[in-house]
Amino acid sequence: MLKQSIYILLAFIFFFATPSLYACKPCAKDLIFEEAVKQADLIIVGRKIAEGPRTDTPELLYGGPDWITVQITQTIKGNPEKTEILVNSWDAMCNYGIVVDDKSFVMLLAKKKGPVDESEYDAVNNGCSVKTYLLDEGSVVMDSRKLPLTDFIEKIKQLNQ
Q1: Measured between alpha carbons, how far is 42 from 82 in angstroms, rounded to an integer?
Q2: How many CB atoms lie within 10 A of CB 74?
Q3: How far apart are the first and last CA of the chain?
Q4: Which domains does the chain have, with CATH numbers?
Q5: Would you say 80 and 110 are in contact if contact means Cβ atoms under 8 Å apart?
Q6: What's the CA gap between 136 and 140, in Å, rounded?
Q7: Residue 61 has pLDDT above 50, yes or no
Q8: Which H or E element spans position 154?
Q9: Per residue in 65-86, pLDDT tens?
Q10: Distances (CA, A) of 83 to 38, 72, 79, 142
């Protein structure tokens, strides 16, 4: 009887306590576009050219690279020191950072605080904000509509005045 009770207790702990240790924390508040632009240290047009070690495995079908290498093609806000930067992507199974394919994107980034890992930049507000917009044929795709990149840049400048 005691042995059975111990097994039940261990099963309870495993199934109900451990998932909370690994679950991705929801954002207390997601920043809207205007707030994210104001908090961003760097806003660029860039594309992923490489990625760091991956956290996903065949057994774990979620996750992705710890960081990505981004080649900057245009700087909209800020002054990066290099044309290639390391940007946080996945934190274990949580996509708090920048998660993109190899297309060009506008990326809203914040300088990393402290030597957390190899990456230099992170998504604004630890990923609890607008992070990226696809660049498609010279236009930024925002909310299912296309805005010419020049108009998008002007919008950013107006928000930063």
Answers
A1: 12
A2: 13
A3: 71
A4: 33-159 (2.40.50)
A5: no
A6: 6
A7: yes
A8: helix 149-159
A9: 889 999 999 999 999 989 999 9
A10: 22, 5, 10, 25
